[in-house]
Amino acid sequence: MSNKIQTLGGYIHEYSKSIQNPEEFWSRVADSFHWHQRWDNVVEWDFVGPDVKWFTNSKLNITENLLERHLFVLGNKPAIIWEPNDPEEAVRTITYRQLYEMVCQFANTMKAQGIQKGDRVIIYMPMVPEAAVAMLACARIGAVHSVVFAGFSATSLADRINDCEAKMVLTSDGNFRGNKKIPVKAVVDEALENTNTIEKVIVLHRTGDEVTMKEGRDVWWHEAIEGVSAVNEAEVMDSEDMLFILYTSGSTGKPKGVVHTCGGYMVYTYYTFQYVFQYSPVDVYWCTADVGWITGHSYIVYGPLLAGATTIMFEGVPTFPEAGRFWAICEKHKVNQFYTAPTAIRALQAYGTEPIQPHDLSSLKVIGSVGEPINEEAWHWYHDHVGKGRCPIVDTWWQTETGGIMVSPIAGVTPTKPSYATLPLPGIQLAILDNDGNELKGNSVEGNLCVKFPWPSMLRTTYGDHERCRQTYFSSFKGYYFTGDGVKRDEDGYYRILGRVDDVINVSGHRMGTAEVENAINEHPKVVESAVVGYPHDIKGQGIYAYVICDMEGRSEENLIQEIRETVNKIIGPIAKPDKVQIVPGLPKTRSGKIMRRILRKIASADTGNMGDTSTLLNPEVVDQIMEGAR
Ligand code: WTA
After folding, report:
1. Which atom of ligand 1 is nearest to the CA of 295?
2. How far is the CA of 514 from the centre of ligand 1 (A)?
3. pLDDT at 341 over 70
């Protein structure tokens, strides 16, 4: 299959074909792969159950398609280039053949340590090649990986382990992050005090810091792989067998385990990677995400490797040792496609263009954005100073649940428009619905973003709780998948994502449920009640604003606020730490006891000109008190 559409007309043609005959369209893409057994039907689905199956009864292993399939031609091509946190440390380049051997060896290692097909394995690791090896080794033997971002706390880690009843944790002694060292093994030890399903922990040597190794449970990675064969026959998987679980926040208190399966995820991440970035075989591609998020799964590991690409993995942070690090790496490795998050762009924008100046960015062809709406100012800065006005920006809209990019320009093919994700990819049938569930047809409309036809990499369920999947995504609008995002389709038919319409906030591109943060705050013994909302934040996109009712006895307000922030840090992790905490005498509630978040959002955004009708409140006087306090 060629990945070249040359023109807007080519895209329109491709899109129409994909809608007129989805079966034919997707089977043509799927034919690029090696299947042990071909499918009966391309897709079987209903959005009520929901029950979605792609490539029914087909058999495959995704790692054969990203390793063996490439070895003959691409065996010596770099698969992963690893750039360490410290630029003085040596770069590691891993060819497809080496990756193949590492994956096979680690697959055998995991088996020897008791892991079988279907078992869940937690990956809590730094951004090192072994993290990708760990994911692929799981996929190789049919174990289900669940990567947990290594910034999450022991409590969050334990919750995830317990929810999926994982048998193994893969981790490291510590992680480097900028000028900090994070003792991740100690976090794992703490988490495991509150779990009882983990049998083995494999620990990668990274920082060299001292750790405690529990006899019989903990083994060093380098010792575990010693002498283990690098020959491994891949487990033959059904297309609909689970590939991985990834936990993500929703509007309820508890993160849910989004489940992706083998066949459809493989086909879609491969297809979208090639099309959106217009990857050519000699290109070097870099996505700055962490493997702890879906972007890292689909567009650092699976998509690029399925396409035989060279993918860069970066261990560090954009501002270490200085604010030009991203550009230094682009220059050093002659990066052709660069994919990052608006929050990183805005953070770097704050340093001005000086850190960019010394670097030769002429290798760049395509620059991308993901994770949150990119504001016009950041879009132009990125376009002018990083892309030098000649690289198209692919503003890619998608979600953990969608598995792959859904709405995006196709680099150099379809037009871009600042702050617009623009057009749906082939195969993606969007619908905009009003709050009553009527589909708004035509252009110049605004409403709830839904999808009305399945695509191969959509979530299949939420782990252990299918009803929750139905409730969350398929019950708001009958017969549609509801994304939780608001959207506008402009006069030209281009899509602009307006942000979440549910109780999810997007902090630096990380999804946080307000209820989840509230639950953490409420763990503080002096907290009576809390309400959390998002507010516009210059760098993070959205900041976290917490209104808290406290028992103040014997405490200073300042100390309490500090303690509350620390409580959240401890329970969820630093990414969820509220930016602002305001101690309030009460929360605005309706007569039925529901918190009026609309009012709290307005106060948090300092948009108090028109508070709307507050007369239906149980306690209207509290609004003025909160406003006074916010000042
Ligand atoms: C938001 C990240 C605007 C959106 C891949 C979505 C975006 C949530 C964009 C999913 C974009 C992601 N423009 N908003 N290009 N990309 N979002 O699951 O609100 O971490 O619902 O997946 O991020 O976040 P998630």
Report:
1. 5
2. 16
3. yes
